[in-house]
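Review session, final week

We close the course with one last complete record, chosen because it touches almost every idea we covered. It is Heme chaperone HemW, a protein from Gimesia algae with 377 residues. Go through it on your own first, then we will talk.
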Amino acid sequence: MLNPSFPSSAYFHVPFCQHRCGYCDFTLVAQKDHLIEAYLNAMAEQTAKLGEGIELKTLFLGGGTPTHLSIDQLSRLFETIFSHFRLAEEYEFSIEANPLNLSTEKIDFLKQSGVNRVSLGVQSFDSDILTFLERDHRSDQIFEIVKSLQSRISNTSLDLIFAVPGQSLDGWKQTLQTAVQLNVPHLSTYGLTIEKGTSFWSREKAGFFDLPQDELAGDMYEFALEFLEEAGLKHYEISNFARPGYECRHNEVYWTGYPYYGFGPGAASYLDGVRRQNHRSVITWLKKVQAGESPIADQETLAPEERAREAIIFGLRRRAGINRREFQERYGFDLHQLAETAIQTNVEAGLLEETDTHLKLTSAGCLLADSVVVDFL
């Protein structure tokens, strides 16, 4: 059972990649492996003031591409982590991975190190889509990699992207059918968004491509809801589907408002009611840590009402929605007292559903979740 006062989750950001894909706006550097040594030293420095033996129920390494690091480099990072943290008896230790980084030797090393969940950036099984997304693996390589991975670490998740220029509804259906045939217990599906500052942003503005119409993107999303549910993958969060017992426990910590540690450039933490975010620039983060200065770029102490409203926004991402009684007990506010107009407007619009116990998004509401949650700010 998670405790709202004592963090038992930690996130470590590994900001290295071989290539920055055109749609990616995450905190990372590509072709900068000469910085890995400094990064590993800085991670040891950033965690130096922690105690020892802090128990974690969930541990997540994201990026970037954590598996871009060599086995020796990963070993050093794990040594830093486990000099301060230890895994609870029933733990989840996740790592994000790029398919071509996963040699048999590296998979074996990850398993021996305690990793028991891998999130694999597959994105598509269509060669043309993979080329457009600037991925470095071929569709025919994925099957052997997933098979090798699952024979060692069965809790494997695949990331998939839809609403890509040139992608048809039939093409998306084929991608989902292929993913289901691989028999993985977890899938994440994300509609392609073009973020300012990415190369795709510049290319779209220059008219090199157009995103699919909203209606087609909506059809793709709705097909995923129906098809994956029929395949035994329950829709438990707006973008995530899992077989029973394989929901990502670490992400549930974020969505349910529990505290967590965050280390590395761009990483966020939520401790003692204070949200902090480290500098997104890898170089700035390194310089701050090396100089013995705080790497934190922003921090905010949330007032009780702010915490409650944030809990609504995160809680509505979960398909189970928000338990009204538990919400009031935890945050001290009645949902209707806090957001009567927002609830009424979105229920009448068919975007929210209210029962005697819960408030949750409808299927239509999932498609428009970003506009729904704005009403609760």
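Two points worth writing down before the exam:
DSSP finds 15 helices and 17 strands in the chain.
Residues 43 and 264 are 7 Å apart (CA to CA).
Good luck, everyone.
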